[in-house]
Amino acid sequence: MALEFTAKVNGSNISVRDVVANTKLSRRQLDTRVRKAIGHSIASEIQRVQIEQAKRLLEETNYLVPGVAELAGYRSVSYMIQVFRRELDNSPAK
């Protein structure tokens, strides 16, 4: 249910708190179940979904990086760039 919720909103403007509120679990219970199911935390899953959403928007649309950052749920363009460099060893522009 939590993973479906995360995928459904494509990571945009979603937090761990939102996912917890959408379930009947505590954050600890949620993290335990998610880790067991997919091998990483719900926060990591949200970030993975955001990255995939941003990559898709960059590849398939004409949105500029600031628009992509907003649509993918990043709190700022600079944070999205930081995540891309850390996780993908690349910039959104590339």
Q: What's the mean pLDDT score?
A: 87
The profile of the biggest β sheet is: none
Based on helices, strands and strand pairing, what is the structural class?
A: mainly alpha
Q: Tell me the span between the first and last alpha carbons.
A: 34 Å
The helix content is 55-70%
Low-confidence stretches: none
Summed up, the helix count is: 6
Radius of gyration: 14 Å
Question: Oligomeric status of the shown chains?
Answer: single chain
| Spatial shape | elongated
- Quote the beta fraction: under 5%
Order of helices and strands: HHHHHH
Strand segment tally: 0
Helix and strand arrangement:
Elements: H1 2-8, H2 16-21, H3 27-38, H4 42-60, H5 65-71, H6 77-88
Which features does this protein show?
67% helix; 94 residues; 6 helices; mainly alpha; single chain
Q: Could you characterize what this model shows?
A:
The chain is built from 6 helices and no strands. The longest helix is centred in the middle third of the chain and has 19 residues, at 42-60. By secondary structure, it is mainly α.
Brief account:
With 94 residues, this protein is an all-alpha fold. It is 67% helix and 0% strand.
